């Protein structure tokens, strides 16, 4: 039986957990051996060589065991050597610890023994300091004289020499500190004050840089060099650095602001325009001086021109803000400031000049006036201008009203029309203020235009109220005007002139309805003046119409001829009213006369007693219509619109022979004059006479049952302005004695 078979027959022992790796290795080795053996002894002829293989494997096994024994022996010898070395190291550490303990005890003994030597050590240090002081004593004795000399140099503005002397003194103090520690000698107590005095002198020189650049540039250069050297110097530990460069820059800015924007230089109320004009001249000169004279005296990193521009701009901005927070500016000052800040300051006359370099550009800085400032100034300007305009317009109106009581007629122009400078004065005041506002900004122009239209509306109302007072006082006899009507006609010309020129107040691009309130006020003024004129006309005609209609009126034209003569006499000055207003006035006069005529007809003074009288009344109406039409056409009316239609329509009503057709005539009258009422028709039927109650009711029924009148935009109220007599109360009694 071979070894592989024997191995398979041996019982397998289950190893413990600590031998898992070993068991795995054995299994792998055994498997490899079985694989090798099966490969070798697969063929029967190989079994003859089994003894050779067994002896070879025995030799290999003995060799491996010998090598394992050698490795284990070498490993055990190394471990033994390491243990011995660790023992020797432990003994050395213990010996070192004992030596250190002994050294510590020796050092403690030396420290206690050296304490009596401390006073000697201090005396040695003092001796060393005294020895150093004895070497510096000649220099220390010269310190007071050096300080005095430095003060003289500072007073003489010899900054470079003074700074060299100051640095020598400070170096001596630093050397003394190095020898004596922090001990400060009394001789150096005034050195900090001396340095501060030099710094103030340098700062003062920088504050007048513009003046020094023109008069003594060397002094400015010396001051700047001292500031630069001191700023670049490394200060000793514990000493605060003196940043004289920043002090110089601040002094430059403060000097500029003090020169142009100091408190004594700020303008008084009303003098802002002169102050701004002075700045317009001074600021470009200051920038040119900075670029040509100051900049060469300073290092490039100072950016002198840019610093100058920024400082002037900032100082001006603060000054303007200070002005705006003070008392409210007047209109002239507000306008001057707005125009100067928005147009002059950045224009070619000042900061935008082509002669200035790009470093002087201030367009990217904050604006001089904020949006709130501009809003405040515009509101102030408009409020002040509005008060002034209101006063000017009131004064002009007062002067015009004073003219109305004169014994002379109104002045006339070359065409003979009544003339007064009042409209021209009013429009010039308003137009000039709008034009001035346009020089500042479009927003201010719109504000002033709105103010101008508002004030014009107020003026027109005041003008209308003045005319009413003028008419009331004249009619009451409190202040009789010798030329009452001519001055009313002159007022119509004023209204016409204002209407024709109000369009100049319309801004380009403004809303089309901006002038609507003013145009409506002008139309109201025109109607009011026309009404006052017509009231005066009717006051003269009313006695003449009191006798119309009558029997005398039927038989003779004298009554209407008197009316026409009186009307012609009253209207003889209407030609002095300009077109187209005169046409409006004549048309209103014609309408007023016709209304008075209709009012007289409606009074029930006459009842035609037969066909002959009805024919006479119809002919008289036709004649009167032609006469009145001819009157007003002769006065200059281009088209008569009231006389003929209404009187001829009444003529047809009176001249109708068949009472059955009265209803048709009444319906035609309603179509022509929609405002005719039943009372008006009833009064006309009373004038016609000869109608029974049934015929009257039948005619009136056509007024109600007829078709509605056709709409017409040109129709104006006529009959509705004529009061009709109240209808008589209906009676239940028939005609007879009792009735």
TrEMBL record:
<protein>
    <recommendedName>
        <fullName>Exocyst complex component 3-like protein</fullName>
    </recommendedName>
</protein>
<dbReference type="GO" id="GO:0030072">
    <property type="term" value="P:peptide hormone secretion"/>
</dbReference>
<keyword id="KW-0268">Exocytosis</keyword>
<dbReference type="GO" id="GO:0006887">
    <property type="term" value="P:exocytosis"/>
</dbReference>
<dbReference type="Pfam" id="PF06046">
    <property type="entry name" value="Sec6"/>
</dbReference>
<comment type="function">
    <text>As part of the exocyst, may play a role in regulated exocytosis of insulin granules.</text>
</comment>
<dbReference type="GO" id="GO:0030141">
    <property type="term" value="C:secretory granule"/>
</dbReference>
<dbReference type="InterPro" id="IPR042532">
    <property type="entry name" value="EXOC3/Sec6_C"/>
</dbReference>
<comment type="similarity">
    <text>Belongs to the SEC6 family.</text>
</comment>
<comment type="subunit">
    <text>Interacts with EXOC2, EXOC4 and EXOC5; may be part of the exocyst.</text>
</comment>
<dbReference type="GO" id="GO:0000145">
    <property type="term" value="C:exocyst"/>
</dbReference>
<dbReference type="GO" id="GO:0051601">
    <property type="term" value="P:exocyst localization"/>
</dbReference>
<keyword id="KW-0968">Cytoplasmic vesicle</keyword>
<dbReference type="GO" id="GO:0030133">
    <property type="term" value="C:transport vesicle"/>
</dbReference>
<dbReference type="GO" id="GO:0000149">
    <property type="term" value="F:SNARE binding"/>
</dbReference>
<dbReference type="InterPro" id="IPR010326">
    <property type="entry name" value="EXOC3/Sec6"/>
</dbReference>
């Amino acid at each position: 039986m071979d070894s592989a078979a024997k191995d398979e027959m041996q019982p397998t022992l289950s190893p413990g957990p600590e031998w898992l790796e070993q068991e795995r290795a054995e299994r792998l080795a055994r498997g490899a051996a079985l694989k090798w053996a099966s490969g070798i002894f697969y063929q029967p002829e190989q079994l003859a060589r089994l003894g050779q293989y067994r002896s070879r494997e025995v030799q290999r096994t003995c060799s491996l065991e010998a090598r394992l024994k050698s490795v284990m022996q070498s490993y055990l010898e190394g471990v033994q050597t390491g243990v011995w070395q660790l023992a020797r190291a432990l003994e050395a550490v213990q010996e070192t610890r004992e030596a250190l303990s002994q050294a510590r005890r020796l050092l403690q003994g030396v420290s206690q023994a050296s304490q009596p030597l401390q006073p000697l050590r201090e005396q040695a240090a003092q001796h060393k300091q005294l020895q150093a002081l004895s070497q510096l004593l000649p220099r220390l004795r010269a310190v007071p004289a050096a300080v005095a000399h430095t003060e003289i140099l500072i007073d003489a503005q010899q900054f470079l020499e003074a700074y060299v002397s100051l640095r020598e003194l400070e170096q001596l103090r630093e050397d003394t500190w190095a020898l004596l520690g922090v001990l400060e000698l009394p001789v150096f107590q005034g050195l900090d004050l001396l340095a501060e005095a030099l710094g103030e002198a340098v700062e003062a020189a920088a504050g007048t840089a513009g003046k020094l650049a023109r008069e003594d540039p060397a002094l400015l250069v010396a001051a700047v060099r001292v500031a630069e050297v001191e700023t670049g110097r490394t200060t000793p530990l514990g000493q605060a650095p003196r940043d004289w460069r920043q002090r110089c820059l601040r002094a430059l800015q403060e000097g500029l602001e003090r020169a142009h924007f100091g408190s004594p230089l700020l303008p008084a109320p009303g003098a802002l325009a002169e102050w701004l004009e002075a700045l317009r001249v001074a600021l470009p000169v200051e920038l040119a001086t900075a670029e040509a004279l100051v900049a060469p005296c300073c290092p490039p990193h100072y950016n002198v021109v840019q610093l100058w521009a920024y400082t002037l701009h900032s100082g001006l901005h603060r000054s303007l803000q200070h002005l705006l927070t003070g008392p409210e500016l007047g209109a002239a000052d507000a306008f001057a400031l707005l125009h100067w800040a928005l147009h002059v300051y950045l224009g070619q006359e000042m900061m935008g000049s082509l002669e200035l370099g790009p470093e002087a550009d201030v367009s990217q800085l904050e604006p001089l006036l904020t949006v709130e400032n501009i809003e405040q100034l515009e509101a102030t300007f408009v409020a002040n201008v509005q008060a002034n305009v209101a006063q000017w317009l009131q004064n002009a109106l007062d002067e015009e009203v004073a003219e109305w009581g004169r014994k002379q007629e109104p002045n006339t122009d070359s065409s003979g029309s009544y003339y007064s400078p009042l409209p021209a004065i009013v429009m010039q005041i308003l137009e000039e203020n709008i034009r001035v506002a346009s020089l500042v900004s479009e927003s201010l122009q719109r504000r002033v235009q709105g103010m101008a239209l508002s004030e014009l509306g107020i003026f027109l109302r005041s003008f209308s109220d003045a005319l009413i007072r003028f008419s009331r006082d004249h009619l009451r006899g409190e202040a009789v005007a010798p030329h009452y009507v001519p001055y009313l006609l002159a007022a119509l010309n004023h209204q016409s002139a204002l209407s024709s020129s109000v369009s100049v107040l319309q801004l380009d691009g403004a809303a089309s309805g901006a002038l609507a309130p003013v145009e409506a006020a002008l139309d109201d003024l025109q109607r009011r003046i026309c009404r006052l004129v017509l009231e005066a006309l009717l006051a003269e005609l009313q006695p003449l119409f009191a006798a119309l209609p009558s029997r005398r009126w039927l038989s003779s034209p004298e009554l209407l001829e008197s009316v026409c003569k009186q009307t012609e006499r009253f209207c003889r000055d209407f030609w002095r009213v300009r077109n187209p207003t005169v046409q409006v006035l004549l048309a209103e006069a014609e309408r007023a006369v016709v209304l008075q005529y209709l009012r007289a007809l409606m009074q029930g003074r006459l009842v035609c007693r037969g066909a002959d009288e009805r024919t006479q009344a119809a002919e008289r109406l036709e004649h009167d219509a032609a006469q009145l039409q001819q009157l007003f056409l002769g006065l200059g009316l281009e088209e008569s619109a009231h006389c003929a239609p209404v009187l001829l329509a009444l003529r047809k009503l009176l001249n109708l022979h068949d009472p059955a057709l009265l209803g048709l005539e009444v319906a035609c009258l309603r179509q022509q004059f929609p405002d005719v009422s039943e009372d008006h028709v009833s009064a006309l039927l009373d004038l016609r006479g000869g109608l029974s109650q049934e015929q009257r009711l039948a005619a009136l029924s056509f007024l109600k049952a007829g078709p509605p009148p056709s709409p017409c935009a040109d129709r104006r109220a006529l009959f509705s302005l004529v009061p009709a007599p109240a209808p008589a109360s209906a009676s239940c009694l028939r005609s007879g004695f009792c009735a």
